[in-house]
Amino acid sequence: MTTQAGAAGRSNVLTLKQALEAAEAGKYAIGSFSPRYTSMIAAVLAAGQEADSPLIVQISQKELVRYGITPKAFAEEFYRQLEEQQITVPVVLHLDHTKDMAVIAEAIEAGFTSVMIDASEKPFEDNVRESKEAADYAHARGVSVEAELGMIGTTDFVETETDEELYTDPDEAAEFVRLTGVDALAVSCGTAHGVYNVKQPKVDYARLEAIRALTPVHLVLHGGSGVPADMMQQAFTLKGGGVSKVNIATDLELSLLAALGREERMTDAECRALEPDQLAAGREAVKQTVMNKMKDFVLSAGKAGRFFQ
């Protein structure tokens, strides 16, 4: 069964599973960029086209609420920009961290080709049950599913000696994937969401290799903003696979706000109401940030032309 809305009929709109298979084979990662504002979707897609890079455009349930956006509005702008800019590079429309099946169903109906169920804060058995439910629902509609095992922290907390208690256990990961049937797994091994002001990123490569050796699915690192490029690149060039998807959100918003000369985030409506010159400046800043990430961080620039070979 094909995905809903605008995804059908566009050969360059892929599921997450399709995109990550190519990335893993090519030993690079695909950036999963959250523009957070619908007005910035255009900038993210333009960056991918100019860099000749596959890319993932995403938004999370929390961001939908925080910025005042619906899955339908986000998807409509995504597909409108694909047509308006004549985007030809491989793209995925992904729903990031989501707790509710109702939001997942809404996103799939709107045309998202990938969704993430996040029940990682719950006991293992509950996480398995909810992730399997999401996977069964999405797969029946031709959509990929990402889940999370372990707790990916935030940079708001001071690093402690107990960090590793939250890390993904390789044996649990193998069992989780077997029981749920998910297509991608977000793992906790040292990165965090947000800006690294106090806690500094680190990546447990041995843990990543152990997880990858025991699981057949593609691995995802969240919290890509602020992580040194060499540290991240080592994570997706590991023997046997490594990481194939890296989430990047905060860096995009910081570049937008800097271009506008402001520090406080906006609502989506406020962003759309910006003066044309402000909107253009913001989009250019976001575009350059995304292109830099593609070229120097995930190393996906120039890969779109060889993507389907």
Automatic annotation (TrEMBL):
Zn(2+) 2 binds at residues 118, 148. GO terms for molecular function: aldehyde-lyase activity; zinc ion binding. Pfam families: F_bP_aldolase (PF01116). One of its GO terms (biological process) is carbohydrate metabolic process. InterPro entries: Aldolase_TIM, Class_II_FBP_aldolase, FBA_II. The active site is at 96 (proton donor). Keywords: Metal-binding, Zinc. SUPFAM superfamilies: Aldolase. Zn(2+) 1 binds at residues 97, 193, 222. This is Ketose-bisphosphate aldolase. The lineage of its organism: Bacteria, Bacillati, Bacillota, Bacilli, Bacillales.
